[in-house]
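[User]
Um, tokens okay?
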Amino acid sequence: MKTGFIYTKYKTDCYNCHADADQVIKVVPQQAQVICSNCGATRVFIPRIHEVEKTGAFTTPISCYDVWSLEPTAECRNCHTTGTHDLFVGCSHFTVRCRNCGFTQFYKFDLQYIGKCNIEEEICDPVIR
């Protein structure tokens, strides 16, 4: 897996279709996405802050949905160690923190859309023509 890239799934009710479905979570340095595997509803988050904190976690507890607290394994883009990261997902924020070095990436909500194609495909044109 590439440095700074996280790919994981979290099964919960979708905010759009309300089905109990896997929410596919993709994180790269430039953006983070949460995609419903059932209806394709996608929430896109863009970077806001990057910093290194030695103690605690950088989270925003207020959210219009339940805040997801996940622990995926990935390679840190700061210390390049593969290990557990703290991942917090809310309706307007998305935080990734390396447990090894404390490097924290805070993303803010940017946009949402409903995908019209299979999320497993490499090339997808979501625009209906």
Notes: Confidence is low (pLDDT under 50) at residues 125-129. The chain is about 0% helix and 50% strand. Residues 9 and 126 are 21 Å apart (CA to CA).
